[in-house]
Here is the input.
Amino acid sequence: MNPKNPDTIEALARRIEEALDASAALQTIVPPGHYRVRVTLENEKGRKLRRDAPATRFSPPSGRILLSFEPAPEHRETASEPQTSASPHIDSHIVDAIRALDRAERLPNFSFVSLKFFRDSSLVWKGFDWAQSDEERAAVLRSAIEDRIMITSKVHNPRTPQFPVTAIRLNRESAVVVSVLGNAAKRPRGFSPVAIRGESLSRTVLSGRR
Here is the structure.
């Protein structure tokens, strides 16, 4: 099996998993504790599709997508991260957060990344040791926001317009972001949150209300 082949069931399942990881709706069904979603694709007869089979074997109208949950890895996900020459003076926690947010911003079909979801779910599921602490996650993000490494904004919430969602994105012109991501620091296509006046950014990070 070639895991890099974008046209396999394996690759399709991973894309679905990444999309679900970025979905705030998943928080309503995820089990207590630190878990990540696992996707299994079946055909119209309920038979599991081989992960090295062509992606065309899965039929959206008649196939089924099964979700299961498994504990998030306790080790850091560094093997698949792009190799860069990040300065040794950059805090390693900031480096982790930058890479995690970069990956979240590049997920297909999502126009923004929710601050609450990124802080309370996405970072935890990555398995970073430091991210298992609520206080540490808040402190790292607060530092990144104050140093303009990350930028927050309010975006329209079509379901409840009176409560806009707080989004977070990388400041891809920041020297720190460029140092960590290198050429990958280029802004993801189609990512353009709409700014709306709101509360203090540091207060938003700590409050966790949205």
In short: The domain at 92-207 is CATH 1.10.10 (Arc Repressor Mutant, subunit A). The chain has a mean pLDDT of 76. The CA atoms of residues 116 and 208 lie 6 Å apart.
